[in-house]
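[[Sequence with tokens]]
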Amino acid sequence: MSDGQRWLVPVLTYTGVKLPIRRRVSSQRVVSDLCPGCNNDFDNTKGHIDSYNSLSSYWVYPSAQNTPFNVSYQYCAFIPKLGVRCRATAKAALNIGGPKGSINPNPPHVTGWSITPVLNSCNGGQNLQYLKFAQNVSGTVCAWQGTPGIVFNGSASKVNGGGKLFWVQILANLNTITVPPSPAVPANAQSGLDNTYPYLATNGDTAQDSPVISLPPRLTQVERMFHAQMFEMWTSNNKYFTRIGVPLGFVQWDIDGRATLERRTWTLTANIGAANRFSIATDVGEPSHGYPIWTNVVLNTAH
């Protein structure tokens, strides 16, 4: 928060720090009493004090060893006709613990694309072959077996109270090119949160993904481009504090596969897949502070 708000927290926290506040209210607006400068924009002859017993703040990153975070805050109240009056500033030094995360291996192993055998539809649709970012595929569209295209094996260093990992994936670009051309993919289906928060294709500390697209016989070429970031997140098990999920880091990965129909047989004509090394969340800085950010949800049911 800024100095002008009269209470200073250098970073956000995932341990609940409760700060007393007051808020002034008029029939026209609500203004925080934490800022004495706001007094100039408020009619001092009106209003009353509403009491709120706490203001929660959260640290996203742990403090360095033997280097606590210094926090100061100030209790202020609006008094009609007198404006804002504040008491002395309180200060505290807080040692904030938290884990360091990683992805093993780093970067994750990428297997590559393949042309599947004909897979039975799970919703009464047409049984088709698929271009899938996986190997040795069998089963059905909804219940397939095989080697996933990419696997993220997460880990986090131990901290007091323990914690657990979860995953969030953000699609930077999801696009398909076909011959003959198919209807353009809507803009809101090309980038955003991948289906759900948190990501569901997980098993404990492991997440995986295997994008797929159908190969209908009316087409002669299908190309799938998929660019995403997989975020490793962590939340504390400590029941004595208010908890939020915090980012440990992410992996950016990019794949591009193309299938071409030749003499009634689908063949793989482009097979690109790569993943970057694990990026530590603390290295990101503002505005995201390492958090996944999105404005749209992509219902990406093709994988």
In short: Residues 1-53 have pLDDT under 50 and may be disordered. The CA atoms of residues 174 and 190 lie 5 Å apart. The chain has two domains: 3-94, 101-298.
